[in-house]
């Protein structure tokens, strides 16, 4: 019983991956657009 | 060749992309190892090796898979296009490419100071100086090595008041070198714990895994992420050997107390250079991290480690494909 509980908790832990990926992609996207924003706001 | 032309060449692209690929890998590995609460250093080191190994081959492999990966339309739809930053001609008064070159030169300087100069000085000193070996005080060391089932290791006790202990692998067989000053301050149990750690180093170094990581790091000298990743992998190696020593002796607290003896007093270094001060506080931080986890009896259990490793690797490989 305890063991199956542990295994299901561990499987649940694996779902951290999609959460981390989504947050990470959003951060990368932000850094991708940042130079264009800088260009637009400050360097025109 | 101008800087813009260089950064758009194959070599320039390799340098830029391998830097960003290692940065992505470092952030992802750091986040997932923390979220999954993986504390077993043997497994953490495997995760960490992804940060060093993957960026070495990622750019050429992606290039082979898709030779038009670098073109404008791919860059437009990519997750991150490094050329947007690099082509940003002026940021205030400072061109971004100049910042990039300064970073590379900075990384080179740190490498030169940390590794090459120190290694050269040590090598020159080792050629000049000979240390008196005290055969009379070797008996406890030999006895402990027998207890640890490592009688084949050489051991040298140097007559000196300094507290030094290390393993050398350059001779015909691995040898443990320690000073009589260290022998005077350590109890029998503490000496056993310290020697256990060194024996673990001697045994584990057969794999030469860290040497491979270090070679890659030297090859990618321009990449500051590699410096930190390699330092972290070396700290993992120390933690692995701590765990082996604690397992052999059955007394992790004794090993923690022994490690505390190796703290370097920071008060006396007021007049030293910035580099020396940084080196001392860096060493102390590493010892502190090791003591803390030994005293906390950090959990070694990691469930589904290979599945987590495979997921992490796949995530890094896929995300990095879209980072150009």
Mean pLDDT of chain A: 81
Task: Give start-end ranges of low-pLDDT stretches of chain B.
Answer: none
Number of strands of chain B: 3
Instruction: Specify the biggest β-sheet of chain A.
Output: none
Order of SSEs of chain B, N→C?
Answer: HHHHHHHEEEHHHHHHH
Q: Which chain pair shows the most residues in contact? A: A-B, 21 and 27 residues
Number of helices of chain B: 14
Give the radius of gyration of chain B: 23 Å
Question: Helix/strand/pairing class of chain B, anyone?
Answer: mainly alpha
Mean pLDDT of chain B: 82
Helical element count of chain A?
2
Q: Could you say which overall geometry of chain B the principal axes of the C-alpha atoms support?
A: globular
- For this structure, the quaternary state is heterodimer
Protein described:
The complex is a heterodimer of chains A (44) and B (324). Helices cover 86% and strands 0% of the residues of chain A. By secondary structure, chain A is mostly helical. Chain A is rod-shaped. In chain B, helix 3 (41-65) runs parallel beside helix 14 (305-321). In chain B, strands 1-3-2 form a three-stranded mixed β-sheet. Chain B is globular, with a radius of gyration of 23 Å. Chain B is mainly alpha-helical. In chain B, 28% of the residues are buried. Classes of the chains: A mainly alpha (44), B mainly alpha (324). The A-B interface holds A 6-7, 10, 13-14, 16-17, 20-21, 24-25, 28-29, 31-32, 35-36, 38-39, 42-43 and B 24, 27-28, 31-32, 35-36, 78-81, 84-85, 88-92, 303-304, 307-308, 311-312, 315, 319, 323.
